[in-house]
Design brief:
The complex is a heterodimer of chains A (113) and B (114).
Chain A: E1 3-7, E2 10-14, E3 19-26, E4 30-38, E5 44-49, E6 56-58, E7 61-66, E8 71-76, E9 85-93, E10 101-103, E11 107-112
Parallel strand pairs in A: 2-11
Antiparallel strand pairs in A: 1-3, 3-8, 4-5, 4-9, 6-7, 7-8, 9-10, 9-11
Chain B: E1 4-7, E2 10-13, E3 19-25, E4 31-38, E5 42-51, E6 54-57, E7 65-70, E8 73-78, E9 87-94, E10 104-105, E11 109-113
Parallel strand pairs in B: 2-11
Antiparallel strand pairs in B: 1-3, 3-8, 4-5, 4-9, 5-6, 7-8, 9-10, 9-11
The chains are: A mainly beta (113), B mainly beta (114).
Chain lengths: 113, 114
């Protein structure tokens, strides 16, 4: 059974801090690792990672995949209160489960002013 | 207009009642999914459908059933609701153009079973 585990489960920081969120996966016929941000509504897509060692970047957010370690990290620099959200990672399976995502528990990030 | 819509957005029901949650999409995607979200458990897949004739169980399908009435519509039913089905339910879609990697989520239905 596919499994995705995130850590920490919750994190409280102050504005300006840098945070690193972790995701480890065990996914059959792994195709990609995705990160989503969820505020008080539906998850919204952040990044898709398919190749090891290649950083994806969007503003203050960046992410990288390590296929050898079956893990990924999401970094947020100079955090702002608007970064407060649940961050979800998901593994995308291939083979007969092509298109099926397995999500981690999520990391609840709270950024205080 | 939202591309993926869910109705109702909120529902309170009683134990033993049958309830249906509906999902519609205008994105033209062939694949649709139902998830439930509970605090601390992330999103868990209930059922998924790769096209109108292809429906598959996810990791937590017990107590649920689905119907794919058309490419654009995917309904989730709870035949006899129980309190531990109280959760936030999301519908999602995906398409081959993105390698089915990215899923697009509806706004969610908050279901409370008393």
């Amino acid at each position: 059974e596919d499994k995705v585990v995130q850590s920490p489960l919750s994190l409280v920081v102050h504005e300006g801090d840098t945070v690193t969120l972790n995701c480890s996966y065990e996914v059959t016929n792994f195709r990609s690792l995705l990160w989503y941000k969820q505020e008080k509504k539906a998850p919204t897509f952040l990044f898709m990672l398919t190749s090891s060692g290649i950083e994806k970047k969007s503003g203050r957010l960046s992410s990288i995949l390590d296929k050898k370690e079956l893990s990924s990290i999401l970094n947020i620099t100079a955090t702002q209160t608007g970064d407060s959200a649940i961050y979800l990672c998901a593994g995308h399976a291939g083979g007969t489960s092509y298109g099926k995502l397995t999500f981690g528990q999520g990391t609840i990030l709270t950024v205080h002013p | 207009d939202a591309d993926v819509t869910q109705t109702p957005r909120n529902r309170i029901t009683k134990t033993g009642k049958r309830i249906m949650l509906e999902c519609s999409q205008t994105k033209g995607h062939d694949r649709m999914y139902w998830y439930r979200q509970d605090p601390g458990l992330g999103l868990r897949l209930i059922y998924y459908s790769f096209d109108v004739k292809d429906i598959n169980k996810g990791e937590i399908s017990d107590g649920y059933s689905v119907s794919r009435q058309a490419q654009a519509k995917f309904s989730l039913s709870l035949e006899s609701a129980i309190p531990n089905q109280t959760a936030l339910y999301f519908c999602a879609t995906s398409e081959p153009g993105q390698g089915y990697n990215e899923q697009f989520f509806g706004p969610g239905t908050r279901l409370t079973v008393l």
